[in-house]
Amino acid sequence: MLWLQLTLTGLQTGALYALTAVGFSLIFGATRVFHFAHGAAFVLAAYVFYWVDTAGLGMIPGIVLAALAAMAFGVAMDRLVYAPIQRHEGSFFTVFVASFGVGIAVQNIVGMVFGRGFVTMNSTLSRSREIVDGVYVAPLAWIAIACAAVFFALLQFFLRRTHTGMALRALADSPELIRVYGLDPRRLSSYAFALGSVLVVPGAVITALGSGLNPALGHHVMLISLAATIVGGIGSIGGALVAGFVLGLAENLALIFFQSQWTEAVTFAILFLVILLRPSGLFGRAAAH
Amino acid sequence: MLKATRTAALAAAAFCAVAGLAGGVQAKDIEIGAEFPLSGSNAIYGDVFKSGTELAVAHINADHMLKAPLKILYEDSQALPQPAVVAMTKLVEVNKVPYVLSAFTGVSKAISTLGQRSQTVVVNGGGVGPDLAKLGPYFWNVIPLANLEVRAMVPYLAKHDMKKVALIYVDDPLGQAILDELKANLPKAGGKLVAEMSVPTSAQSFSGVAAQVRASGADAVYIASYGAQQIQIAKQLRDNGVKVQLASYSGFSTPDALKLPEANGLLYTTQAVNYKADDAVTKRFLADYEKAHDGKKPSAYVVNYYNAVLLFGILGHKLEEAGKPITGANLLAERKATKSFDLVGGKVSFQENGTLLAPIQVNKIVDGAGQPQETVDIH
């Protein structure tokens, strides 16, 4: 039954990876900004949720405020950090360093406000129940998988059926053409940051309830988001979703064959293989030379 | 013209007199270094360690134990060897400190070479890898090492019918050392290591590991990790249906680990500190610590780092009295010449390898605090 247990655990892990990776992929795909501070948005949302819930205000206000905080952070990053750098023709590397710096600053500010220790939330949602003999699943696992499916469906609907969504997809292809059509790329960029940042909220809430939080969590989130984005294909939302699940399942099923210390290596072996065999990612479009 | 020259000369003389007076009154601080994790997921340890060092500095300075005020230069090791070596280079080459406080096995091993080469004493009060006893004369430990902790925990588990043990260990020198000790000591106690699962230092998800633990049929799970990770392991084991006894080492004695609801009932070892000792050092330490921390009892880490700084104060005082400069070489010679020291917990002495020998205590977490279960004398 170990394989069934690890498959279910892998799906839960994959759902969390997918949720964070899709947001990063949306931002990177639409704006080409390497938003390293995406991990900081995750940490911020998770701690706001933790703060509101432990203050006794309940989970729903916690989720709403976490979403507002993540959205405000994403838009502020776009308007106050990336836009000024890009106005002065800052290089990709300059943007990356600025984003990295903000990520570190947020980690330290969160540490100052909430303490640098590990915080957990006492929730029955994280307690596993035996569903068949020797196989345990927590309600959070089903919530994570359902969230990944629902958010992906909503995002696809938004990107394919709404005017703003289509404009965002167009922004990824050609910002110049966007201007020709009378649209404002700067405004669309802010939409991408707002939406991409909100997508971290389900993952942040589930992590807060399930495994607990510390201010340094953002780096791991960012690493997985980046790996899933590259494996899935840069700019491909569906690719990021599938890659998130692939990485989560691989990480857990690897335990059948390898020591647990190698599970992270499995993630990066997959990344390496994809880069080697299909540089544009599983669902990415090959770049023209 | 003559008047102007005379005024300028008087002003210059007055300035020199004031400057000289000031220089005479304000002696240069005596500086020592500390390499603690001040950021990242292990920063909580830095806060705990500092509460001990700062109290010791306050006591040493209040007592005028040294001829000049003592000051600690803190560097952020992040609990990682590479930044620790960079910081150690600065402390040794730029600040020229004779004494550096260290923590974490990997960090301590990394900076020990520089300590030996520059004759700078490195004192560890937090890392427990057994290798730390073999790092040369300039490396001292004011904490009993993990081999002793495992030797105390294994018989305790066996005595309570927990003979099949699964180990989850972090993939670093500390985890490896605990694995070796369990392999060596479990068969002697009639036990068996039924599963060993190493995890990378950055791992945060352990539900898969929990499934492996359940499949192993272990009676107890020994967690050999630290910082946020060890708490995540304990929480996720419980959340994922692992109901057997959890056990760990002194790394689990941090405030946020103790207050974790899922850690209730977990067994962990620490050095046994006699807080009821009737000496003035222990009484003053306890009274002032509890006053500063709302009546909270200090952890063994706080004691270790208080003792590490106090040890410097005692040795430095002796050197100053003998008219010798406070250098690493002189501190080492003075420590070897002194049979025992009055530190928190009573009189203590160092072994030949520079490590303090102390009895080990098995504790159980009950309602967020460690309750001593048994004290074991390890030799």
TrEMBL record, chain A:
* Record-given protein name: Amino acid/amide ABC transporter membrane protein 1, HAAT family
Look up and give the membrane topology term: Multi-pass membrane protein
**GO biological process per UniProt:** amino acid transport
**Molecular-function GO terms, alphabetical:** transmembrane transporter activity
Q: Does ATP-binding appear among the keywords?
A: no
Task: Check the record and name the InterPro entries matching this protein.
Answer: ABC_transp_permease, BCAA_transport_permease
Residue spans crossing the bilayer: 6-26, 33-52, 58-80, 92-115, 135-159, 188-209, 221-250, 262-283
Name of the coding gene: livH
Q: Which keywords, in A-to-Z order, does the entry hold?
A: Amino-acid transport, Cell membrane, Membrane, Transmembrane, Transmembrane helix, Transport
Q: Member of which family?
A: Belongs to the binding-protein-dependent transport system permease family. LivHM subfamily.
Which subcellular locations apply to this protein? Cell membrane
Query: What high-level taxonomic lineage is stated for the organism?
Result: Bacteria, Pseudomonadati, Pseudomonadota, Alphaproteobacteria, Rhodobacterales
Annotated GO CC locations? plasma membrane
TrEMBL record, chain B:
Domain of life, source organism: Bacteria
GO terms for biological process, alphabetical: amino acid transport
| Keywords for the protein's UniProt record, in alphabetical order | Amino-acid transport, Signal, Transport
Q: Which segments constitute the Leucine-binding protein domain?
A: 30-366
Q: Does the keyword Transport apply?
A: yes
Which Pfam families does this entry report, sorted A to Z? Peripla_BP_6
Q: Where is the signal peptide?
A: 1-27
**Gene3D superfamilies referenced in this protein's UniProt entry, alphabetically:** 3.40.50.2300
What InterPro entries does the annotation carry? BCAA_transport (IPR051010), Leu-bd (IPR028081), Peripla_BP_I (IPR028082)
Q: Which protein are we looking at? A: Amino acid/amide ABC transporter substrate-binding protein, HAAT family
UniProt keyword Signal present: yes
Taxonomic classification? Bacteria, Pseudomonadati, Pseudomonadota, Alphaproteobacteria, Rhodobacterales
Query: Could you list the residue ranges that cross the membrane?
Result: none
Sequence similarity: Belongs to the leucine-binding protein family.
